[in-house]
């Protein structure tokens, strides 16, 4: 291990272990920390391996609150490979879990992970790594709550859109609740979006059970390259969909073919602080198509208006769509 690793690095590594053990982590921030100094990756790996060793669980519980009062030499900046130092780092993990989760230490197989909340700003795309090996990519202006437990994994999509890549685990189903809809998987990849009054699901890999929350009799199985929409209290029958390895919004693009304007609006609103309003509700059914950069929703609307016969008036707070 690198000789310039400090006690602060050890404390930071312990915190990252605690975060991984307790729930989702910010994958970008974690990667930046690892790459910020030689030896940090090895330090984290060693500490993680120690925490995963069942033989240290009882010792960790017993010593989590012990403070080491032994003096430290002035030149003690290197990693000290003695059991006391390793135990201090492990005890720091337990202490962090107690503070963050508000519960006493218990073995990992019986630990209920505390809930974590994540959200993105308008136009921001963010990837979240979960402790079970799954990843979630949030579209702009989106928010989720995550809870991982020993008997199941649960995510609530409160607003916006998210791409889920779920690690396979037969003993722990992965459930996502979004508005009035719910999907359940064991391991798959899918995109789920709250678009105004609709909940839209598209499956990129595997099979997803899609139903109205609390209504098992509405469930449909949506397979790879299929999509379904929850509307009117039940999901529609799955239909074929053109599936790419990554949804366009991950790279800031939007591609649509014969889409009602009413379905386009919530997608654009994730990328602008302004509201999008229509003077004539009949325009919601106007069919539009094209491929556009999401970073300028006003330009998208203006371009579509020129093609599909409507006008766009911009104010300080909104884009107003008008008839010809």
From TrEMBL:
Q: Which GO terms describe its molecular function?
A: sigma factor antagonist activity
| The keyword Transmembrane is assigned to this record | yes
Chain ranges of the FecR protein domain: 118-209
Q: Which UniProt keywords apply?
A: Membrane, Transmembrane, Transmembrane helix
Tell me which Gene3D superfamilies the record gives: 2.60.120.1440, 3.55.50.30
Origin, by domain of life? Bacteria
Q: Give TM regions.
A: 86-105
Give one Pfam family, short name only.
FecR
Positions of the Protein FecR C-terminal domain: 255-319
- The protein in question is named FecR family protein
